[in-house]
């Protein structure tokens, strides 16, 4: 089996949530590692997928908001330094890969299925290594993972939406 790792320079983990039910706040995690173990990344045959995202690396462009997200009201980054994923089933159909596995956020683990789209492969001009691209978009209900902090608005609704939209752009190459 070959291990492929995400290239942090050419990969992104981004998210967005509704704020006050009228606008969107976007952010990203700056430190993460995705790893796929398989004999063939194009076919994903017998693949195992693992991911680790450093919660303290959250970046929304606002230090006060980032501090609140790292606190016990949300990720509790001091006690839960990572969001993790470990696959237990992988199914490929065309350019789509369904990956089912255990997601752990803030100490709560739930089984989830995500669909990755294979964007193809190329040869990097920086060293000639073969690279593979994948992307995924999905929504997570943060309350399922105990991230329930919120504030009711006088006009109705809540300060922070329950649903978090996640966008992954991942470029993999063989682990050196």
TrEMBL record:
Span of domain Lipid/polyisoprenoid-binding YceI-like: 3-173
InterPro entries, sorted: Lipid/polyisoprenoid-bd_YceI (IPR007372), TTHA0802/YceI-like_sf (IPR036761)
Superkingdom of the source species: Bacteria
Pfam families listed in its UniProt record: YceI (PF04264)
Family of this protein: Belongs to the UPF0312 family.
PANTHER family linked to this entry: PROTEIN YCEI (PTHR34406:SF1)
Name of this chain's protein: Lipid/polyisoprenoid-binding YceI-like domain-containing protein
Organism, as annotated: Salinicoccus sediminis
